[in-house]
Design a protein that fits this description.
Number of strands: 6
Distance between the termini: 14 Å
Order of helices and strands: HHEEHEHEHHEHEH
CATH class: Alpha Beta
Structural class: alpha/beta
Helix content: 40-55%
CATH topology: Rossmann fold
Number of domains: 1
Radius of gyration: 18 Å
CATH superfamily: SGNH hydrolase
């Protein structure tokens, strides 16, 4: 039997496998109950939320080209999402998550990666879908990475709408071809250095609920995958706003995503 060539060479163990077990479902229900019980307390947090919004340093999107199309590229990646896709926290997109991940894939597999970015600071999933529907060109992408959830957390997107927009996003991305769609973890906002207590615990619970719903959606949807990671909040890993990664933070984040993304691409190629 001839073994099919891997899209990305190298072997990595599976880091995350979503399992919708009764225990996880019960945990989700408990967290939902806690959320609804705590929701009235949000009224008490509004002054703190307004203060944080007014005083937190607002960094611009990174400079640089939003597409990298080398002639010898063997892989073609779409990366769409919010401020971290737009490179907020670094000066140039070459230091951002997309380029860092592409470089690490190349270092691991010796395959050049072409990439295209659709990232907007402050965007929610519903708004991202509109942009992708209107502007995303036919580029024969081989896989897509989606990074978002912070703005849907802070703007209180309901779980029902979150799930609905996730379905629409996948439909839009896979319109031309059923490429793998890989979602990164909704960032755990309780760990953000820029957020004071108790606001960060309230938003942390909300971001966790969106992340659990994302995991469930990915498990139940063919060709859609979830990749988890650990947020590094050491000073050198964070930008000066305490809200976004630094160049080193993006590099570390990409290194955490690499094993699972590599495994997913290999499985899709050989499947």
């Amino acid at each position: 039997m001839v073994k099919k060539e891997s899209l990305v060479s190298g072997e990595y163990p599976a880091i995350f496998t979503a399992q919708d077990t009764p225990l996880k479902a019960r945990s989700m229900l408990i967290k939902k109950i806690i959320w609804w019980v705590s929701l009235p307390l949000f009224l008490l947090l509004i002054p703190q939320a307004i203060y944080v919004k007014r005083t937190t340093l607002r960094l611009p999107e990174a400079d640089g080209e939003r597409a990298h199309q080398p002639n010898n590229a063997e892989l073609n990646m779409l990366h769409a999402g919010e401020s971290t896709v737009a490179g907020v926290g670094v000066q140039d997109l070459k230091q951002g998550l997309t380029a860092q991940l592409a470089n690490q894939i190349k270092d691991h597999s010796s395959k050049e990666v072409a990439w295209h970015i659709y990232g907007v600071n402050g965007i929610k999933i519903k708004e991202l879908n509109v942009i992708l529907e209107q502007r995303c060109p036919k580029k024969n992408y081989q896989f897509a990475i989606i990074t978002l959830g912070v703005n849907d957390t802070t703007k209180l997107t309901s779980l029902k709408n979150w799930h609905h927009h996730l379905k629409n996003l996948v439909k839009i991305v896979q319109k031309e071809s059923e490429i793998p769609v890989i979602f990164t973890q909704v960032p755990p906002m309780a760990q953000f250095p820029a957020l004071p207590a108790p606001l960060k615990y309230f938003l942390g619970l909300r971001s966790h609920l969106l992340d659990l719903e994302l995991q469930r959606f990915c498990q139940q949807t063919k060709g859609v995958f979830y990749v988890g990671s650990e947020l590094e909040v050491a000073r050198e890993m964070m930008a000066e706003d305490g809200y976004h990664p630094s160049a080193l933070g993006y590099e570390n984040w990409a290194a955490q995503l690499l094993p699972d993304i590599t495994r997913i691409l290999n499985e899709q190629k050989s499947g």
